Amino acid sequence: MSVFTTFRLADASGNHLIEIANYASYNYVLNCSPGQVGVLELELPRSFDTSLLLRDGRIGPWRSISNRPPYNDNNAQFTIETLRYTATRTFVRAYHATGLMDRRIIAYAAGSTYAKKAAAAADDQIKTFWKENAGASIVGADRDGVETQADISAYVTTQANLSTGASVAKAAARRKLLAVATELAEASAMVGTYLTFEIIAPTETTLELRTYTGQRGVDRRASSGAPVILREQAGVLENATLEIDYHNEKTFVIAGGQGEGTARLIATALDTARMGVSPFGRVEDFVEMSNVNDATSLQDDADSGLYNGRPLITFTGDLIETPALTRGIQFDLGDLLTAEDPQTHQQYDVRLDRITESMSSGQRSTQIALRNILAVG
Fold this sequence. Notes:
Structural class: mainly beta
Largest sheet: 14 strands, mixed
Number of domains: 4
Low-confidence stretches: none
Number of helices: 5
Radius of gyration: 22 Å
Shape: globular
Number of strands: 22
């Protein structure tokens, strides 16, 4: 079983320039957790034609597994943001296209229909906010400033509304779009529907904002018809580590909206079960949402803060791919799997949230990070 990786380079508009197979090393991260933006780092020989390395040039990792046709790894595209030159190497750092959402703010006044949304499916809300701030639904007369190059719908399309996320209200005037989308996804998960989003490349030359509910990938847990169980004893993991992290846990969250003093709009959320684990289990946090003047939206913000403050249960390990268990064939990013604690052999249902693939000195390695479904939605 062999895996060969190349990188296809295009300009910012998606026009193909060159396929890169001659590299010194690479490292790229795929992360499907809501709001996470993966990074690609590529080290090229100094002889590489650097005139091809453009601001926002697109890089797509392409994998060929045992002579199968090459495919764009999880439809990922990365845009170039850092170039560094030395006497012997050219270093490139690029960020997953989902990071384009962090370049926009919701540039409408508080209380306007473009900044304040009544309860609706969270996945549709994400797409609406995107289209009203980076797409064809921009309303220039109601926005802050000029609209020069604001509409990029010719380059990033938007998946049709699916209306499958939980119903969530949101007030988000003049805030970063990526942060708002993340909060909507977390609020949906808080009330029972896992939701995430990405800007992916459905074809080599196009980009599209998509949402995923339930899971990004396929359900391959032990309880499914085609299970994938990751454990060291089976020879598919090395250096497996189970980590339970309470450090950033929050069990009582206050969200503060508009107003001052005793007139300020306040919403709270608490988890008495987690709080009761320890006599010191009340861990408080304050969420600053001073542009929110709607009680329903503010309650969703408090609930989202509580959800995001749950303890993290994560598995990490070095993946040992075999013909019977190969990433990209039997399982991949966003799948629901079963992982086994290397010490107690207890099994957990997990989500494959992050994949890090690297090549250095001719050696390819893959690290994976899995999160317990009950702990993080």
